Amino acid sequence: MQDTVETASSAVIVAIDGPSGTGKSSTSKAVAAKLGLSYLDTGAQYRAITWWMLSNGIDTEDPQAIALAAAKPVIVSGTDPSAPTITVDGLDASGPIRTQEVTSKVSAVSAVPEVRALITDLQRTIAAAAEGGIVVEGRDIGTTVLPDADLKVFLTASAEARAARRSGELKGKEATDLATTKAALIKRDAADSGRKTSPLAKADDAVEVDTTDLTLDQVIECVVTLVEEKRAAK
Ligand code: DC
């Protein structure tokens, strides 16, 4: 597997990692839109493969069964930050990948090394094809997928703040109380941080931004400034 991505010299590659509820998606999309960059939500890709496993009767507790089936679904990500898309075998997966069923199974599926190898390859191909540059958000982008990214940002926030944000997003859909949301979020982060293959981790050269007491606009402004500094120095 190739682990460096060749892009045009002016293209800027930004890796944004961190646990759930830190504002990663909103920040990454807004930064990409403001700076004219492409955008890739890698969590959506892991959710998409999880949805395919569930839809095709694969036991998500059986890593061997997951590994055997991993290459079957065709996952395609649209990288326009104002309208990101995701399809699986040509079907729009943007709704089904956000259900609680998928959310509760995605850590187990994404821990399988064969799944990670395939999705990582796909992510590198997409990043290399993004001519003007790209913002890629996830858990292992700075450490594993794009270790040569021009800028690495690691977003954090207190568990309380993250649970409150997640609850807000779920309102009206599959709302649960704050304590349940917080417990589910802590459980998923522990699984994502504790897995053997490319766990959720901050790269040594990543800039850590604690978003607990920041508004979304403040986080966006902070990351835009960091990208502009890197671009100016290229
Ligand atoms: O960002 P998200 O909540 O949509 O991500 C869903 C899951 O996908 C997350 O719990 C772990 C997994 N994931 C991963 O393992 N590596 C990534 N780069 C992105 C997400």
Give an account of the 3D structure:
This protein has one domain (2-208): 3-Layer(aba) Sandwich (Rossmann fold). Helices cover 48% and strands 15% of the residues. It is built from nine helices and eight strands. The chain is globular and about 50 Å long. The two termini are 27 Å apart. The structure holds 2'-deoxycytidine-5'-monophosphate (DC). Residues 20, 42-43, 46-47, 106-107, 110, 138-141, 188, 192 line the site of 2'-deoxycytidine-5'-monophosphate. The site of 2'-deoxycytidine-5'-monophosphate has 14 residues, from helix 2, helix 4 and helix 8.
Task: Please give a handful of descriptors for the protein shown.
234 residues; alpha/beta; Rossmann fold; five-stranded parallel β-sheet; 9 helices; 15% strand; binds 2'-deoxycytidine-5'-monophosphate
The gist of it:
By secondary structure, the chain is an alpha/beta fold. It is built from 9 helices and 8 strands.
| DSSP helical segment count | 9
CATH architecture: 3-Layer(aba) Sandwich
Classification by helices and strands? alpha/beta
**Strand count:** 8
Q: Which ions, cofactors or small ligands are bound in this entry?
A: 2'-deoxycytidine-5'-monophosphate
| Overall mean confidence score, pLDDT | 93
How are helices and strands ordered from N to C? EHEHHEEEHHEHEHHEH
| The CATH homology group name | P-loop containing nucleotide triphosphate hydrolases
Main pleated sheet: 5 strands, parallel
Beta fraction = 15-25%
* CATH level-3 fold name: Rossmann fold
Shape: globular
